[in-house]
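Batch manifest line 461
LIGAND: flavin-adenine dinucleotide
JOB: complex structure
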Amino acid sequence: MGEFRIVRKTASERKVIHRMAKHLAEPRWMVYPTAKRSEQALVRLGVTAYELLGGVARHERHQTWGRAVLKAREPLIDQRAFRSAVVFREYVTDDARLVLANLRDAAAQGAVVLNHCRVVDLRGDPKASAVQATCNLTRRNVTIGAGAIVNASGPWVDPVRRMEGPVDDRLILSKGVHLTLASDRLPVNNTVTMPMPDGRTLFVVRRGEATYVGTTDTLVDRDPEVWPSITDEDVDYILRAVERTFDVASIEPSEVQAAWAGLRPLIADGENNPGEISRKDEIWVGERGMITVAGGKLTGYRLMAEKVAETIRANAPVSVGTSPRESGYLPGGEFDGEVGDLAAHISQQHNLGIHTAHRLASLYGSEYDDILSLGRDPICPGSKIIDGEIVWAIEYEGAATLEDVFYRRTRAAWYEPNACELLQPMASIMAQHTGWSPERVEQEIAATSAVFRSELSFQAA
Ligand SMILES: Cc1cc2nc3c(=O)[nH]c(=O)nc-3n(C[C@H](O)[C@H](O)[C@H](O)COP(=O)(O)OP(=O)(O)OC[C@H]3O[C@@H](n4cnc5c(N)ncnc54)[C@H](O)[C@@H]3O)c2cc1C
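JOB STATUS: finished
ARTIFACT:
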């Protein structure tokens, strides 16, 4: 029953996020290929239940494609293995940019937001009334007093809880790996799901000139890391899934353009199969009063925030609002139509190539104009990334390192071809705006390309 509630709430929340920021939660048709009629019936049953629970509008409800339609619309799907498909509406979310949009929105409402600042200890006894934090860039320490302290550190929730004193771990971490290929190596027209014999489902998603594929789901028995390593097994699992689903020549690990791994913070429930562990969220109040929020789904973040606010009201001497704003837009979210319409408008109005325009629309939404006013020259010949984006990232999105710009602001690392060639021009523009010395520029490039290479270290074998 609890799982139904999670599905219902997250399904309807996705629509709210899409209303607030259409560019960050983009509706796409998701193609689920099926081999047999019985399988098709089962998938339709699940999708129908999901649509009813989530209140999906009639025109957005699923379709079934027979063999001829499947062949016409997704010709690459192996027609010998799959005779039909169930096609349903899903939202593709840009997680890092959704977080940024919320942080900027919070700052606009008066919040003070710190980047690269790590909480290292709690202050106050018996109740914690401040955190001690260290700036990872300057190494300066600060003590920040607070009426309520909320620990929302994802996979790091348990290490932060231990700052209150000895506690048992409550999280279990599951690694998810994605691989990026050139889109012409796997040219899908829609988002395609790949049902696996072990019961998992992987996704193939087109994004500009890239197609990314993922994800794995394997338990990790060690401390959380920002960049968990990607093994040959992870890569093999994903590439074999592609071969099972598509009629394509075997893809070699050396063809992978970029890769990344993340850790899902799941609440331990005694289940050992990561796919079976509930994606529920929970809130715990620690001995010294710190409120921890853990688990959950990204798209359920507003509901989790609401529960955190209720817990603060019940436990701490501070006043907080009653619920997240229902109406209004996140920064960049206010425009007519969908991302494709906005991209066409930008391309026409500003005489830009459609790929550059589409990038601007999907990353920045209605703020594209501000970016263009900061600079509209490609950062290097042939690039779709323009110099205004780098300036914007520094001035308005708190980017402080090349890694911030390359990975979490422009998303170039994962979705642009020959991404490492963009590091030098990006770093030069950053240097002009921040006064970085030539040595600092070299350090930033070396550090960021080391991260990029380490994610692809499976190619060295
Ligand atoms: C591969 C993969 C696929 C996923 N797919 C989906 C999906 O399809 N749909 C969905 O809804 N969810 C999905 N998720 C889950 C979703 O990404 C997570 O639920 C979500 O990111 C959790 O958000 P969070 O803010 O709690 O944690 P995070 O996003 O991990 O953020 C935690 C933050 O806390 C910071 N931090 C850690 N320690 C400290 C400290 N001491 N001081 C200060 N800051 C600290 C970290 O630097 C980090 O920025 C997926 C996750 C993974 C890994």
